[in-house]
Amino acid sequence: MKVKEEILKEIEKMPEEYLQEVLDFVRFLEMKMMKERIETAIMSESSLEKDWLRPEEDEAWKDL
Hints:
Blueprint: H1 3-13, H2 16-52, H3 55-61
């Protein structure tokens, strides 16, 4: 059984009063994932900036 199926199966057994906590946790994980992606993008940007700001790059992208 796949993990997603197992999670859904477990959720079906949970009492209603716990479902809000489950939803809160899922949203927390989504925010954590988004934060990690943003941090990675920011770190990548600073390391690639030296290549992006070259005249050769401007020439290559001028027609877009």
